[in-house]
Amino acid sequence: MKISGSVALVTGANRGIGRQFVLELLARGAAKVYATARNPELVDIPGVEVLALDITDPASVAAAAAQAGDVNLLINNAGITTYTNLVTGDLDKIRLELDTHFWGTLNVTRAFAPVLGGGAILNVLSRLSWVSYNGANAYSAAKAAEWSLTNGVRLELAEQGTLVTGLLLGAADTDMMAGFDIEKADPADIARAALDGIEAGALEVIADEATAEVKAALAGDPRVLYPAAV
């Protein structure tokens, strides 16, 4: 798929990686970019079509799909983290994580799949799709579910020629990671790598070495990934 001339829709486009996706799509010559957010007034990028979209609200998703029926590139980027564990954490927060990352991504995918044809879907996943992190286990569970969703949707949409790509990354310099004093990737670099992957027909884009190391470790003894559990 070529980005130039495409019609793209980005969820969670008001900040972070989503905002960088919009900027990179415009730079690569996308014919139209729908920049969506729960609070569309926060989208401040000129030259885009701004839409209200709360991916956890089926009515909001349906309304956006009705207004953007020409999309052939869907970027499921919207996400949250509540930094909640599973055994003792607030169940409402755990449900919110799953409602956003799994059900929300599925809502949007189901709404736009019929119009994508030979286009593409990019799901923004995480290194924590493959490894859990004590203190944010609800996020890991939700992202693992979204990874499985990505693989399933890929199979289901293959017949209509839609590319489904998973983007997996570690820490990026966004509001979500602002409280962590660790090395973080530039969101602009993440967006560029992901769009390069789409144009190359990649099924998976691994954005950093730490994420690649986690994927490789999955084939080994779980003690490598979870030394604290031993």
How would you describe this structure to a colleague?
- The chain is an alpha/beta fold and 230 residues long.
- 42% of the residues lie in helices and 14% in strands.
- The chain contains seven helices and seven strands.
- It has a seven-stranded parallel sheet, with helices on both faces.
- Helix 1 (16-27) packs across helix 5 and helix 3 runs parallel beside helix 4 (137-157).
- The termini are far apart.
Please write out the topology.
Layout: E1 7-10, H1 16-27, E2 32-37, E3 49-52, H2 58-67, E4 73-76, H3 91-116, E5 120-124, H4 137-157, E6 163-168, H5 187-200, E7 204-206, H6 209-217, H7 222-225
Parallel strand pairs: 1-2, 1-4, 2-3, 4-5, 5-6, 6-7
